[in-house]
Write a structure and sequence with these properties.
By secondary structure, the chain is α/β, with parallel strands linked by helices. Helix content is 46%, strand content 18%. It has eight helices and five strands. The chain has a five-stranded parallel sheet. Helix 3 (53-66) packs parallel to helix 4 and helix 4 crosses helix 7 (136-144).
Length: 170
C-alpha cells in the first residue's frame, strides 16, 4: 500500500488581499513556502523587474519538487504567471494532495490593506499588480488542467474565512 500523500495547501492572490494574515493565523507550525523570498533574490537597484519573477517562481517550484516534507505544506503565491503555476501545480499532484484557494477581494480593498500594513513598497508596482485580471487569469488555466480550486471572498471576517477553509480542507 502506497504511503498517504501530504497536502499542499495553496493560497494565491493580489498583494493586500489577506493571504499572509490567513496563513499565519490558521497554519501555525506548518511549513510555509512563500514565493516572495525567491522573488526578492532577483531585486536590482531596489526594484524587482517583472520579467525576473518567472525565474523566482521556477526556483520555488524546484524546491517544492525536491522537498520531502514531514507533513502538510502551505504555499503562498502572488498573481504572476498563472499558466506556469497551473502547470507546476499539476505536476505536484503526483506528490501531494492539492488544495488550491484563490483569494479574492476588490482592488480598492487590497490597495488599502497593502498601504496600511506598515511595510515599504513600490506604489507603482503595487498598482500594476492590482490591475491584473485575477482570479479570471487563473481559473481558466486551472480549468484547462482539470484542477479543482476554491475562490475565497477575502472581504469576509477572518473567522468566516477560516471556517470556510477548514470545511474545504477536511
Amino acid at each position: 500500500m502506497a504511503p498517504q500523500k501530504n497536502k499542499l495547501i495553496v493560497f494565491i492572490g493580489k498583494p493586500g488581499v489577506g493571504k499572509s494574515t490567513l496563513i499565519s493565523s490558521f497554519f501555525s507550525g506548518a511549513e510555509i513556502v512563500d514565493v516572495m523570498p525567491y522573488v526578492k533574490k532577483h531585486k536590482k537597484k531596489g526594484k524587482i523587474p517583472e520579467a525576473e519573477t518567472i525565474h523566482a517562481y521556477r526556483e520555488m517550484y524546484e524546491y517544492l519538487n525536491n522537498s520531502r516534507p514531514g507533513g502538510n505544506l502551505v504555499l503562498e503565491l502572488g498573481t504572476n504567471h498563472p499558466e506556469l503555476n497551473a502547470n507546476e501545480l499539476k505536476r505536484l499532484k503526483e506528490k501531494f494532495i492539492l488544495k488550491i484557494f484563490l483569494c479574492d477581494a476588490p482592488k480598492h480593498v487590497c490597495r488599502e490593506r497593502a498601504e496600511n500594513r506598515g511595510r515599504k513598497f513600490d506604489k507603482k508596482a503595487l498598482l500594476l499588480r492590482l490591475e491584473r485580471d485575477f482570479p479570471n487569469s487563473h481559473t481558466g488555466f486551472f480549468g484547462e488542467k482539470g484542477m479543482k480550486f476554491h475562490v475565497l471572498d477575502m472581504t469576509r471576517s477572518l473567522k468566516e474565512i477560516k471556517s470556510k477553509v477548514s470545511e474545504l480542507l477536511y
